Amino acid sequence: MGLSPSSLLDEHGSNYIRGCAEAELKEFGPHYRTQYSVVFFSQVQDELQQPKEKIKQLLKQRGPPEAGEVLYEEQVLHFEATRWEERYVVVRGNYCLECHSSFETFVKGVPPRHKLLPTGGTVLTTEEKYMAMVDKCFPVSETNNVNEKFAPPIIGMPGQFPVYLRLPYRRDYYFCFRQDARQAEFLSILSDCIRHQNQDFLKKKTVEVQAFLKAVHLYRQEKGSYDSWKMLIGSDVRVLANLVMEELLPSLEKDMLPHLKARKTERKRVWFATVEAAYILVQECLFEGMSALKEECRKAAHQQEVLIRSDMDQILNSRTYLEGKLRASVLEPAEKFCSEGVQPYLASVLEELMGPISSGFQEARLLSDSQMDQLCQDFQEGGVTNELKQALAKLSRPNLLSCYQRINSLHDQLHDLQERFGFSNISSLVHSTQIDLQQLVENAAYTFHLLLYKDIEDNPGNACSAMEKSRHKVLKQYDYDSSTARKRIFHAALVGITLPHIKKTLAPTYKTALQGLKQLIYADYSNFVHVHNIYEGILLQSLDKEVIKVVEEAARLKKHNLFTDTRDFLSQSSSSSLLSTPFIPSNPARMLGFPGQLQTQPETPTFIQIHPETQPEAELQPPSLLSQRGPPGWGAR
Question: Which intervals hold domain Niban 1/2/3 (predicted)?
Fold first, then answer.
């Protein structure tokens, strides 16, 4: 008989793992408490400041779909235990994948057999590539011959089109299809699930999430890690669990691998099952501890709110004074390093970003145009019918897989960034950009929907003309919003790629000096003014000036159909070129991006934190012309 995970994860092993999780949370806690107070103060400050005038959107915003809304449902072959089973797979608006026994049990409301959150997942469609990835994840030891072959534990595959889902620290999932088209549809929705499960939670603007993000950055920097971390994905508990597992795996390898004396394939299966058991145990411990920590911080913030509101001016003065001291010593060296070590490379990095991203956005435009044109041809007569409603619903969720693949070519374009800036987390860039593209396409479909209904209502006797009119409006608005979104993406990507490099380079010079500046903060206000936040804000401002110049220069040269401002857009659209001749990128294989907020105590820009509403003041963009359709709710965690 083979070994089992429980035989390796005995009481001693379980207690050791719990101890590691508790120690990590104890070490992380002070960073989170500090950032919670800082972010909460900023939230109250925003509330008390004169509200900025909001520019109205052309169309009203439609609320996000319900978390339970069904986005995909299909009969799918799924490998369970030792055999293939027909399962009814459902994906809801929270991007959680459910496996039901059958369509009948789903309709009756029977709970699913499995719920899968594919956070961090990698999708493969060939056994060769899947086995190669598994081999990379299995540690080399004296008991392991790296040339041993390992096959997935599946037999008698009933179809020609498999899907292998590889998950970090968890068991893998296997699906199979008999038709290529059904496999492609499943790949599209599964990729959506991975992107959104990776990033939706961390994109939230709540105090808890923003404090957590900043705390993770500073916590890792304290340990000497300044890079954009690949495992910053999923919920707060999952992110902390990933931190624990990074430190835990070496000890598991040392203690457990020598005892894995089973057959070669069994050895790998037992190892991966043991890692999963450890991962689940870590998350259980952290969930309880993180919940208590957040509740503690909420209560503390409630008590601090009276002081914040009464002493807001004094706190801001204290922060301004500290910022002045920091600027005097930091600004000149930071600007010098930016101009010599970063600025010369920004334009070339931007070129590598623009191609794949613009190519993906352009292909999505062509796809939307084609679908709207087909709809216009199919419904040339009559008013709003059930068939038209169904066609519009289909238009709202097109298969963007080919568009995503163009953006995915960033992996090939940006491989040199590791050597130059120490940046390797290209997947996060890709996923965030793909989410932005998905949002833009959904906005276009929703806007077309609203315009079409209104035009048909105003001119019921000429539905064909109404559809063409709506289509042309949407295409013009798509071009404008595409330019706005991509400029924001490029700006944030350049910051996210280069800022960690700047911080790492300057850290040895200023790390000790920053500690000494804490004494300049009035004790009563030390919860709301943090030296490292202000320091990183100064670095960001130095870099931001250079990034803005490069992005605006690309827009001035109208590279990849970028617009400099509203007047530029109106000038081009009035020539009708946007309607008659679709723009084709000069290099249809490069692109990416996101924005960051320029403020005294900023959130460190990452490729999951960039939003249209948080652009640097020096690069304020005109309002979106497309209705903003909120993203579906994030899944359970």
Answer: 336-500
